[in-house]
Amino acid sequence: MINFFKKPDWLTRLLCKVFDYKEIGWKEIGETFYRWTILKTPWFRIYLHKLDAPNWHEQCHDHPWDFFAIVIKSGYTEQVGNKFFWRQAPSFLYRKAEFTHNVKTDVNHPSWSIVLVKNKRRSWGMKGCSE
Question: Is the pLDDT of residue 48 over 90?
Fold first, then answer.
């Protein structure tokens, strides 16, 4: 069952008080996604992500920037085309902006990652997972 009114835990509330953040989850599918800005420079940014995505998105997505991610707690299942991969902590990933994927976390086990992104060079894209 999807909990659309999940109350943030104490750590999430504390991080929201200390760092600039965006809550960018898709409530329609029960996703909660926090992105805290840890460091912002003219050349790159470092984010802390907390992703709670118990359901698949209808489409895969790509990104506006190249990025390097380190999964530091729990993990997620990643769909790339017709293949599925479990990305558990610690996983080290590099992705070009054009890399298309879909992600899903275990129910009640959000994934935490540190993400270093280069400057934005394109818009977000949504597409079929087999494209």
Answer: yes
